[in-house]
């Protein structure tokens, strides 16, 4: 009789105890996420997705030589403090606090001996990207001095390191350090799968902002992580200036991807780019032959056979800095 009463009490008490524990947990969560005046903290509201069009956009910026010079001369400590206050974390990572971004973007910037350009780029691009309410990281891949510059291989390295260091970003924007978008209505959002976006098709130094031919796929381009994997990234074979972006365009076509442009390619102030001046690079004398033979090597030349030595990795206040040593290697058919 005694044990039957005990069993009966267990049946009654158990659901009551579970309910009590559940209510206690809820009360503790609300208390820990509530301010002194009884209102839930803003962090609980950040689950809402950001609006399709950011309310923070300001429009066109006059990127005159005077403006860029002033950016480069501003005290570094003051800039870094201001960026930190705005929410930029170590390694150049940012996500909006007021809403959940719809886009996770890795900005890949290949450089060598471009310190002044990089300074202006970072100081301009962080506020620009924040006004679009993006979840982003800026990754700068710097090549050592041993061999001619290889932009395509550095882009591949940036893509690989972005996935390893910072998680799975939806897309990458492949960005030359000397290119600045003049209008924050120019979308740095992720393109849909199957439709990589050529972004820098209206450049001040290209016939005074006139449209560049549609086959151009260099300077600034956005592509989903899935598509970049699908086309095997860039060729690693282009040493010196030129050709790697032409072959990247070929790779998109080989996989039936459609290269698109913002606003259907219509040239307006919204898509203008300003170029920071620099000495003209020496063209790669082999670039045309590499482009022509590229169709046969897409599957074996790119991300799949990427080789490099990481010499340095630092999560700087405004960017992730990766210094690499790379060298040519034979590609067999």
Automatic annotation (TrEMBL):
EC number of this enzyme: 2.4.1.-
Job description of the protein: Catalyzes the transfer of galactose onto proteins or lipids.
InterPro entries: Galactosyl_T (IPR003859), Galactosyl_T_C (IPR027791), Galactosyl_T_N (IPR027995), Nucleotide-diphossugar_trans (IPR029044)
Cofactor: Mn(2+)
Keywords: Glycoprotein, Glycosyltransferase, Manganese, Membrane, Metal-binding, Signal-anchor, Transferase, Transmembrane, Transmembrane helix
Record-annotated Galactosyltransferase N-terminal domain positions: 50-191
Source superkingdom: Eukaryota
Protein name in UniProt: Beta-1,4-N-acetylgalactosaminyltransferase
Main location: membrane
GO biological process, one term: glycosphingolipid biosynthetic process
Chain segments annotated as transmembrane: 12-31
Gene3D superfamilies: Spore Coat Polysaccharide Biosynthesis Protein SpsA, Chain A
């Amino acid at each position: 009789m005694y044990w039957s009463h005990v069993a009966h009490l267990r049946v009654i008490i158990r659901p009551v105890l579970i309910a009590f524990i559940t209510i206690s947990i809820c009360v503790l969560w609300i208390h820990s996420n509530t301010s002194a005046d009884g209102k839930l903290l803003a962090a609980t509201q950040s689950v809402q997705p950001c609006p399709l069009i950011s309310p923070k956009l300001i429009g066109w910026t006059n990127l005159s030589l005077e403006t860029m010079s002033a950016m480069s001369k501003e005290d570094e400590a003051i800039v870094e403090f201001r960026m930190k206050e705005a929410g930029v974390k170590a390694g150049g990572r940012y996500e909006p606090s007021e809403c959940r971004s719809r886009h996770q973007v890795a900005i890949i910037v290949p450089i060598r001996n471009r310190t002044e350009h990089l300074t202006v780029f970072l100081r301009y691009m962080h506020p620009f990207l924040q006004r679009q309410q993006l979840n982003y990281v800026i990754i700068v891949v710097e090549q050592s001095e041993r061999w001619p510059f290889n932009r395509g291989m550095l882009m591949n390295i940036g893509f690989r390191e972005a996935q390893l260091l910072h998680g799975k970003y939806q897309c990458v924007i492949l960005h030359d350090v000397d290119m600045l978008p003049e209008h924050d209505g120019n979308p740095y959002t992720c393109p849909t799968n199957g439709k990589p976006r050529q972004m820098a098709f209206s450049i001040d130094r290209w016939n005074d902002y006139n449209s560049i031919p549609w086959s151009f796929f260099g300077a600034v381009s956005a592509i989903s992580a899935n598509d970049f994997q699908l086309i095997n990234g860039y060729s690693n074979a282009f040493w010196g200036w030129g050709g790697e972006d032409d072959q990247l365009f070929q790779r998109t076509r080989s996989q039936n991807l459609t290269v698109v442009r913002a606003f259907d390619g219509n040239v307006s102030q919204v898509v203008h780019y300003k170029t920071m001046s620099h000495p003209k690079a020496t063209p790669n004398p082999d670039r045309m032959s590499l482009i022509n033979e590229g169709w046969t090597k897409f599957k074996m030349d790119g991300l799949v056979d990427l080789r490099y030595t990481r010499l340095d990795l630092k999560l700087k206040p405004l960017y992730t800095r990766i210094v690499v040593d790379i060298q040519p290697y034979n590609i067999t058919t």
